Structures are given as structure tokens and as C-alpha cells.
Amino acid sequence: MKRFFKGRSGELAARWADLRFALYLMRRNPLVLVGSALSIFFIVLALVANLIVDPALADQFKFAQSYGWNNPLFSWGPGTASLGGKEVFYLGTDGYGRDLLKMIILAIPLDIGLAFFITLSAAAFGITIGALAGYAGGVIDEAVLRITDIFFAFPGLLLALVFAAVFGRTITNLAFAVLLVWWPTYVRLMRGQVLAEKEKTYVEALKALGAGHFRTLFRHIIPNSIYPILVQMTLDLGGVILTFSALMFLGFSPSPALPELGNLASDGIAHVFTAPWLIFFPGLTILIIALAFNLLGDGLRDVLDPRLRR
Amino acid sequence: MNDQANENETVLEIRNLKVNFHTYRGEVKALNGVDLKLRTKEVLALVGESGCGKSVTVQTLIGLLPENAFVLEGEMILNGKDLLKNTKEEMRVLRSHTLAIVFQDPMTFLNPVLTIGTQLEEVFTLQKDLLAEATTIEKSKRELKFADFIKRESFETPHKNVKASRREIKKVTKKLCADILSLVKLPDPERILKQYPFELSGGMRQRAMIAMALARRPSIFIADEITTALDVTIQAQILHLLKELRDKIDASTLMITHDLSVAAETADRIAVMYGGNVVEVTFTPDLFKKPLHPYTQMLLNAIPNIAKPTDRLESIPGTVPEMINPPFGCRFHPRCKYAMDVCTKERPKLEEVEKGHEVACYLY
Amino acid sequence: MVKFYQYIIRRLILMIFVLFGVSLIVFYLGRGFPSAFDPLAQYITPKMPPAVREQIIKEHGFDQPLAVQYFFWIRDVFNGNWGFSNWANGLPVTEVFFSRFPYTVELSIAAVILTFVIGLPLGIISALRNNKLPDHISRIIALTGYSTPAYWFGYLLQLVFFYYFALWGLPSLPSRGAISDALIGTVPAVTGIPVLDGLIAGNLNYAGDAFVHLILPAFSLAFISLGYLARIVRASMLEVLRQDYITMARSKGLKERVVIYRHALKNALIPAATLTGLFFAGLLGGALITEFVFSWPGVGRVSLLAVYQGDSNFLLLYSLTTAAIIVLANLIVDVLYVFLDPRIKY
After folding, report:
1. For chain C, what is the mean pLDDT?
2. Which residue is closest to B118 within chain C, CA to CA?
3. Which of C24, C28, C35, C151 to probe the A interface (max A CBs under 10 A)?
4. Which residues lie closer than 8 Å to C211 by C-beta, 6 or more apart?
5. End-to-end CA separation in angstroms for chain C
6. Nearest residue, CB atoms, B93 vs list C253, C340, C342
7. Which CATH superfamily is domain B4-98+219-359 in?
């Protein structure tokens, strides 16, 4: 451990100063603070959700009380069914008679977990390929560029839809489908960064010192290019949730009763006016989650802008 | 605004100007009590290293300080009025016809997507009285030359009474633009007006910028390191141009540079700045013959002398003071070999020691 | 100049390559895996006698390995034969697609106009009042839009402006379709775009009805992307305002308004304009979810049905058309850059 730090004290000090400056900038921006707080809240909630709400509730169907609302604080209008009984459903009940609030809480670990998994995989995959393409240049670079061109030409959801339709509705397939849509962005991003870094004089210096290609790439170039990638990843967390919840909304979930935000909302399509809470609350949750990550990512982007550093 | 300008009259006086900047790392005390006098029709060079406060002085003068800057105390008196007390709008009006500045790098200071013509015309558009007079001249079929306007302080035709159509004004403006471009020795002005900045060479762009400054018929012409970004041959051309124009215009010139040789060639007087203060001001020949301030002396020693080849170049020991916690008292004292006790206590004021020669040092 | 044309030709060749790539992927996905839907069904009607069936199978290469089938398919496409969509009353795939396309075009145009009209000022204000309250507010609006699930906002709009408005006795906006049922077919379809057709025919009632139907779905689409546009405009404005030539413009004594509109905006708008172009191209691909939510008879909604029904030829036509549009749009945008920014030369 000591040997790791020996000789790196300058580098560490510089990065520490960077971090402190970044935190200073972030403190000055209230929206970023809100975003960070919300993001942390949801991550924590994802971790403890199964402890707060009994997961078994997801399988308990009580059709007698489906599509009902009995929250005294708010009324949705004449078309909605009122529930009697002692139990108050703060967000109403869904098509299976389950408490929507509890289902939403149960859905959060799945949604957040999937978001992280897909984003990290797409990023890891894209970064590696992008870095190699940018560094190697030549034929490899051309080939990679053409392949990403093809993927970029697909309109939004279509590729994921077709993939999911062909390979069946499992969560892994869904995750892979969404990954297919997101990975090219990282390839391009990383490639751009590597191309820019490659021209810098320190790379030439490294070569003169005899550093091998892999060492140059992984120990120097990639860490220096990481900031825009981090920003992109944070922003993508929100985008990925929107994408796969949209897929589930369109009917690609493995099971219609699965507690997942998009899936819960799809239940409400036929009941837009008679049970609007079914679409409203799960959708609102997705909105807040995506907003949290977008606020954070947006703030990070401002903070990590190299030109703002003095 | 006097027609009969007295050679020794002070046009601009800066007294004890103190300007600070709020930054993440602390308060930067950029200007520490700057004293400066600019006289009518003279060329005053403001010389100093990077970070000594030359640009900040200029920014304060034209009223374009960045948002995190503020003036602690001091006065800037132009024609009897303290500029620091002006509103933003008043400063803007002043910039449109009294204060003109030419910047360092003509590539970045010209808008790449607008033609030279557009960028020059807009300067004229701000001077309604000038345009009114020009239109009158044009209508009476007399020849329209920009040079005629430079010396005039007020015009015969009050601009409210002139009725001119847009087309006439445009025509007059274009003529003035072409004329002023030939004044700065740019060939084929008609074509240049239609070109974009990137189509011109560095020297030509700088001339265009000078034209834009002249178009304002300024009382104070500020040249902020205008030759720094140019190579030596072009530098010489531009300086030559300035010398020629000098006789034609009424303005006083404030020339900012870090290059003593440029100052030597063009300036009547030189003011040396260090660490946010003016430390010495005198006539150009006197500065080189008899530098009084230790900093000036070391500066001149550091210039290699082609007549006396040596092995080592002399440099000034120490480094430029960092402005967040500058040295107390005289800011040069850590590097000064004559430093006395009093130098650490209080900043020396700029005082006239000999005829026309001012120094801020306790040695005198 | 020659280099410029060379560049364009290179890009067009690239486009053909991309189209091949896209078609390969969709073809493989569509026919290469066992699914509930037989791709053969697109070329056969139930009434055909077995002999004719055999002939068709041979004609379109269904008895050959997948790789060879691909070339049969290409030949068919060049002959204009995309087969039939059995789920859509057996209409030819091309007809199903192109009859719906104008509706998507109409919606896209409306959405782009709204996005630009709202997003641009929002971005400019954000930049000018950087880090002050208007900036924060516009940032929240922008990011909220960007984070909103498309279906959520769409249904919310319907709930409020269609359902509740009616309940409260207010004039309500239609929530489905591009034109009221009663008016369908009352105007000759010249362009296929309802508002335009109505105007051409001089039938203001029709045009007005079509326009009113556009409001909710276009706004739903615009809300999501105007935020993104505003952020881009803000970022590029801030970037431009930092430049030296802005200081120069101010030093000339120009009014701040002139500095912003004449000097800053022109530079800052370049990325915004190109982004809008690309966004429009993307929209033309059919905003699947919005069309679904509003029952908009456009290409996106139909493609959803095609996915459900396993209509691989339709999906091929759809993805190829949209891919071509996107690639062309990118090319046009890159070319436009040459004209917008005098510094760029080829």
C-alpha cells in the first residue's frame, strides 16, 4: 500500500485539490445539491426497500379491491371507484388489488439496480472499444466507426423492441436490448477523448520513456479522459430508466404483475380516466428518479468543465 | 472639450486606484493605488511584466471589469469627471466615442462570423452626429473624407435637424468605412469590407482593429499589447503606422506593453508598473539614461546589450509577488537589494524627484 | 470545391453501407429466429393453391439458407415488392407505411416548431442570467422535461385537457387521432398531411380541426426535448459570451442588446440549429410512445403493431427509411455547417 502511494504524492495532491474545488463549485449550486440528495435517497431506498415492504405482497392478488382509491386527502373525480374498508391506500390500488405505494417501493430496487447495471455495462464495453479504436487508429478505428454509425442510425426504441420481441421477455434480454441502444455513445465519446489525448505532449514523453501501449492507454490516457464519461454515465442513468421502463410499459415485461415502474403504469392504460393514479404515480416516480440523476449529471458537467478550472 | 489643446494639460488622471478581485482562493489585490497622468496628445507607455496590473488598469478605465472585480477606492478623472462614478450606460456612451481600445490578438478579438465591414460600420452607427454631418457633406456633393472628422470636436450640423434616409446613411457609412481603411493603409478597402477576419493576414486584421478604434474619434486611444501577437516585421509596420497616425489624430495614446523596446520606439513618456503600482514615470530618454527605481534598473540590466556581449544574462532574483497575500509596504522590497526597514512598513508614494521624473521609492 | 463534392460522395457511399448494415441486422432478427410468425406469410394469401405456394417459396428463396434468402430479399426490394401485411387487411407493406407517414411528418413539424419556439428563448435567458433565478428555473424546466417519461406526460395532458376540462365545463382538446372521426375523408388527400390538405382545399373547418388535434401530442413531444435544446443553447451562448470578440464588441460601446443579438447569437445558434435538424430527423422516425398514447395514425404506432405481429418486412421498410432519414439529416447538417460558419472550408 505504501509502495502504491510512494512517488504519487504529487499526483494525489493534485487530484485532492481538484476534488475540493469541484465540491466547492457544487456547493454553490443548489440544484446540484438537490440532485445529489435525491439520488442518494433513491439509492438508499433501493437498498432497504425489501426491508420496508414485504416482497411477498407483490404476489397477493385481491381483485375485489382493484383500481380503487380511498385516500381522503385527494380525489380524482367522479369516474373513480371509491374503496371502503379500514386500510388506507395512499396511492390507490392497482389492477391486482395491491397497494400501489408498496408496489412502487418494491419496484425501486429493480429499476435502480437495472439502471446501474445497464449503464455500467454499456460504459465498460463502450469505453474499451472506443479507447482501442481511438488509440489504434487505422482499420480498426474505421471498422468501429462504421459499426457505431449503423447503431446510431436506428430510431430510438426500435432496435430494443425488435430484439426483445425476438428473444423473449426476460429481464436479461431486456437489459441487453437497452444496452444495445446505449453502448455506441460511449464508444464515440471515449474515442474522441483518446484522439485528443493522444496528441498531447505527455504521450510523446511517455513513449520516449519507453512506456508500452497498454500502460499508456490504461494508466494515463483513460484516467485523464474519464470526466466527460462520468458525466455521461450519470446522465444516462436517468435515460436508461426511461428507456427500459418504456419498454415494459409497451408490454415487454416478463410478467404482468412484476413490480416495476413502467410495468405498473402499463396496467393503467385502459383506465386512464377511471384510475389515473396507476399511470400517474409510477410515472412520477420515474420522473423524480431520472430528474435526480439528470440534475446531478448536469451539475457534474458544469463542475468538471475544464475551462472553469482556475 | 477644448479646441485649443494645451500640450501640458492632463487629459486623464488616475489617483490611488485600488481594485480587488474575489476569487475561490481569496482576494486578489490587483491594483494597489495606481497613480497615472495622461497628457494631451502624448504617447504614454505603460510597461510591466505579466500580472503587474496593466490590463486591469485598462479594464477599469473603459469600465469593463469582470463581475468579480470591484473598486476599493481611487479616482479616474477624465475631463473633470470621475469615471468611477459613472453608470454603466454612461460608460458605454463614452466607449462609443471618447475611449477607444485596440486589443492584443486580432484573431480572437474579431467576430469570425461577421464581415469586417459589419464590424466597422457598427462603430459609425453609434455616432449619430458624425453621420449627420457626413450626410450633409455628401448631399452637398463635397468630398467625404474621414480624416476631416478626426480633428473636429463639434459639428456645424446638429444631428437632430438632418433628415436622411436609411439608404443615404448606409451609403455614407460605407464611404467612411472605405476611407478609414485606406487611412490605416489597407489596400483595396472595398473588398476587405466584404471579407471575414480569417481571410486577412494578422497584420491586416490588426490594422482593421486600429481603424475600428479610430472610427470612434477618441480622446484616449488605448493600445493593449497590440504588437505582442504579431511577428517582428509586422510589429514594425504597425508601430510605424501608429507613428504616422499620431500626427493626424488629436488623441492621447496609452500604450500597454511588456516590451521595453516597443515603448522606447513609440512613447514620449514611460510609466513602469510593478505589483499593482506605478513605480516610475518619466520621459523616454530619461528612463534609459537614468533609471531611478531599483526595479527599472534591474529591468534594464536584464536586457542583453548588443554592444557589450557577456556570458550570463542578468535576471531579477525572486519571483513576481502573488497578489492574494502581497508583500506589505513596497511590493518590490523582497527582491530589492536596497531594501530598508521603512520599505516593509508602508508603500512609498509616487513623487516628482526631478523635472518630469517621478519615482515611488524611499531611496529618494 | 472538388474536395467538397468528394466529401459528399463519400458520405453517400457511407450511407449505403449503413443501410446495408441496418437491413442485415433487422433481417437476421426478423427471419433468423424461430418466432410465432412465419415470414412466408407476407407473400402468401390463404387462398393460394399449394402449387402457387411452392412457386412463391422458390421465387423468394424460402427454401434456401438464410444468407441466400437475404439476396432474394434485396432483389425483391429493388423490384418494389415488400410483401403484404396480413394483419392490416392484407395491404401491401409499402402502402401501409406510406399512407401513415404524412401523419408522422405533420406531428414532427409541429413538435419541432414548438420545441424551437419555447426552447430557444429559454436557453438564451438562461445564459444571460447565468446562475441567477431565471437560470435555475429554466434549468429545472429543461431537466424535468428531459426526465419525463413520454407516456406519463401524454396521459397527464389527456387527463387534464381532455377529461377534466370537459368535466369542468371548459372547452377540451381532443386526445386521439389526427382528425375527428366525423371529418375523415371529407377532404381530398393531396399531401396526406391533414392541416395542409385542409388549407389547400380551402376547408378551414377541416384544417382547424386537424390543428386542434395536433396541440396535445405536439406539446407532449416538445416538452421532452425543449429542455435539451435550451441546455445546448445556454451552453453555447455561455461559451460564446466568454470569447474575446464579445469583449471587443462591448468595448466599442455597443448596446448590450446589440452585442447579444448581432455578435453572440449568430455564433451560438449554430449548434442549436444543427441539433434541431437532427431532432427533426429523429422525430420522423416516429415517436412511438407518443403516437401510441394519442392514437396518432402515424408510422410509429403502426410499427408497434408490426412488432407485435412479427411483420418483419414492414420493420425492414420502417428501419431502412428512418435510418436513411437520419443519415441524410446528419449529412445535411454537416454541410450546413460549412455555410453557417465561414471559417470551415473543405
Report:
1. 82
2. C262
3. C151
4. C195
5. 7
6. C253
7. P-loop containing nucleotide triphosphate hydrolases (3.40.50.300)
Q: Which residue of C has its CA nearest to B217?
A: C252
Mean per-residue pLDDT for A196-216?
A: 79
Nearest C-alpha in C relative to B218: C252
| Least confident range of A123-127, B150-154, B298-302, C297-301 | B150-154
**pLDDT for C54-101, tens place per residue?**
777 777 777 777 777 788 788 887 877 777 777 777 788 888 888 888
Buried b (16+ CB within 10 A) or exposed e, B306-315: eeeeeeeeee
Residue found by looking up cell 460549412 in the block: C338
Q: Which of A57, A175, A34, A41 is nearest to A108 (CA)?
A: A41
Contacts of residue C249 in chain B, CB cutoff 8 Å?
111
- Determine the longest span between alpha carbons in chain B, in angstroms: 72
| Of A234, A172, A248, A262, residue with least CA distance to A40 | A234
Q: Do B111 and C248 make contact, defined as CB atoms within 8 angstroms?
A: yes
Considering chain B, tell me which residue range(s) the CATH 3.40.50.300 domain(s) occupy.
Answer: 4-98+219-359
CB pairs under 8 A between B and C: 70
Using the Cβ of C266 and the Cβ atoms of chain B, whether some distance falls under 8 Å is answered with yes
Pick C151's closest partner by Cβ from A165, A238, A246: A246
Number of A to C CB contacts under 8 A, please give it.
142
Burial of B118 (0-12, 13-18, 19+ CB in 10 A): middle
Residue C71's pLDDT is: 82
Q: C-alpha B65: how far from its chain's center? A: 15
Place of cell 455513445: A185
Contacts with B114 (C-beta within 8 Å, 6 or more apart), sequence order: B196, C262, C263, C266
If you search the block for the grid coordinates 412465419, which residue do you land on? Answer: C38
pLDDT score recorded for residue B5 = 46
d(CA A90, CA A99): 8
C-alpha cell, A155: 430510431
Nearest CA to B358 among B283, B267, B285?
B283
Inter-chain touch A155–C326, beta carbons under 8 Å: yes
Per-residue H/E/C for chain C: CHHHHHHHHHHHHHHHHHHHHHHHHHHHHHHCCCCCCCHHHHCCCCCCCHHHHHHHHHHCCCCCCHHHHHHHHHHHHHCCCCCEEHHHCCEEHHHHHHHHHHHHHHHHHHHHHHHHHHHHHHHHHHHHCCCCHHHHHHHHHHHHHHHCCHHHHHHHHHHHHHHHHHHCCCCCCCCCCCCCHHHCCCCCCCCCCHHHHHHHCCCHHHHHHHHHHHHHHHHHHHHHHHHHHHHHHHHHHHHHHCCHHHHHHHHCCCCHHHHHHHHHHHHHHHHHHHHHHHHHHHHHCCCHHHHHHCCCCCHHHHHHHHHHHCCHHHHHHHHHHHHHHHHHHHHHHHHHHHHHCCCCCC
What long-range pairs does C73-81 form, CB within 8 A, spacing at least 24? C73/C27, C73/C316
HSE on the CB side for B245, CA within 13 Å?
A: 29
- Of these ranges, A134-143, A197-206, B149-158, C335-344, the one predicted with the greatest mean pLDDT is A134-143
Q: Do B216 and C252 lie within an 8 Å CB cutoff? A: yes
Interface probe for C, chosen from B64, B93, B111 (most Cβ of C below 10 Å), is: B111
pLDDT (0 to 100) of residue B3: 43
The cell numbers describing B103, all together, are: 486589443
**Partner B contacted by C251 (CB < 8 A):** yes
Cα-based distances in Å from C15 to A152, A191, C320, C321, C331: 12, 21, 11, 12, 9
- Which range has highest mean pLDDT (A129-138, A297-306, C181-190)? A129-138
Quick check: A95 and A67 in contact, CB under 8 A?
yes
